[in-house]
Amino acid sequence: MQVPWKLGSFTISANVLILLLLIPFVHSYYDPLELIKDRILNSDKQSVEKMSPKLSFEITVHGVLLWVSMGFLMPVGLLIIRMSNTEMCGRRLKLLFYLHVTLQILSVLLVTVAAVMSIKNFENVFNNQHRRIGVALYAFIWVQAFIGFRRPHKGIRGRSKWFFVHWGLGTGIAVLGVINIYTGLQAYHEKTSRSISLWSTLFTIEICFITFLYLFQDKWNHIQKQGMVLRAEPVLPTNEENITREEPRIRAKNTLLMIMNK
């Protein structure tokens, strides 16, 4: 009788142990909302833990670098090279060209620093639009820099094709860079829960001003040309002025005819 008792006590102990082990699974089975709630709370705790002051500072520096490079230097570089299209002075044309090149090189360097920071310090998981666009921009920017240094001289065959590719790619990079700054501000808001309305407004005002100057250049040249044409063309008298000028002659002629008839 001793063996069955020991066997029974072992069986009861084993069943109790199995039930204790199955309690969390049974609880989660009957209360899935609690399980989901726990997972959300744990993920929030992990995100809060990851957002340390150091990481917040690195994200801010990353955003400032891209704002200065792709949100200011690159659009201003496009504006300057557009100004050179109507410049007739060789010295000023050369100055505008080298200023364009300097701003674009500086922009590429700042973008590269921001890219190294993102690869080194941030999560390399391309699960949002900002990160995917950023990776494409990093590649396109260096391709554009290589194309720029391979610029053929004027009059050489293939210069027109190079100009079209360089202009199209540069314009596309500038537009995509502006879009990605907005997505970066939104990602910063989602990550830190901080307001971005002020920064979005300031950036929008800046881009609208640069776009206005970019589009106004052609109109300004057109206005200047219109003024030159008006000054160069002779001013023709109107019909009323012609009649007024001819009246004394007609009167004198009629008077002379009357005298001769007498």
UniProtKB/TrEMBL annotation:
<keyword id="KW-0408">Iron</keyword>
<dbReference type="InterPro" id="IPR045150">
    <property type="entry name" value="CYB561D1/2"/>
</dbReference>
<keyword id="KW-1133">Transmembrane helix</keyword>
<dbReference type="Pfam" id="PF03188">
    <property type="entry name" value="Cytochrom_B561"/>
</dbReference>
<keyword id="KW-0249">Electron transport</keyword>
<protein>
    <recommendedName>
        <fullName>Cytochrome b561 domain-containing protein</fullName>
    </recommendedName>
</protein>
<dbReference type="GO" id="GO:0046872">
    <property type="term" value="F:metal ion binding"/>
</dbReference>
<feature type="transmembrane region" description="Helical">
    <location>
        <begin position="131"/>
        <end position="150"/>
    </location>
</feature>
<feature type="transmembrane region" description="Helical">
    <location>
        <begin position="162"/>
        <end position="184"/>
    </location>
</feature>
<feature type="domain" description="Cytochrome b561">
    <location>
        <begin position="22"/>
        <end position="224"/>
    </location>
</feature>
<dbReference type="InterPro" id="IPR006593">
    <property type="entry name" value="Cyt_b561/ferric_Rdtase_TM"/>
</dbReference>
<keyword id="KW-0813">Transport</keyword>
<dbReference type="GO" id="GO:0016020">
    <property type="term" value="C:membrane"/>
</dbReference>
<dbReference type="GO" id="GO:0020037">
    <property type="term" value="F:heme binding"/>
</dbReference>
<feature type="transmembrane region" description="Helical">
    <location>
        <begin position="12"/>
        <end position="30"/>
    </location>
</feature>
<keyword id="KW-0472">Membrane</keyword>
<feature type="transmembrane region" description="Helical">
    <location>
        <begin position="196"/>
        <end position="216"/>
    </location>
</feature>
<dbReference type="GO" id="GO:0140575">
    <property type="term" value="F:transmembrane monodehydroascorbate reductase activity"/>
</dbReference>
<keyword id="KW-0349">Heme</keyword>
<feature type="transmembrane region" description="Helical">
    <location>
        <begin position="59"/>
        <end position="83"/>
    </location>
</feature>
<feature type="transmembrane region" description="Helical">
    <location>
        <begin position="95"/>
        <end position="119"/>
    </location>
</feature>
<keyword id="KW-0812">Transmembrane</keyword>
<keyword id="KW-0479">Metal-binding</keyword>
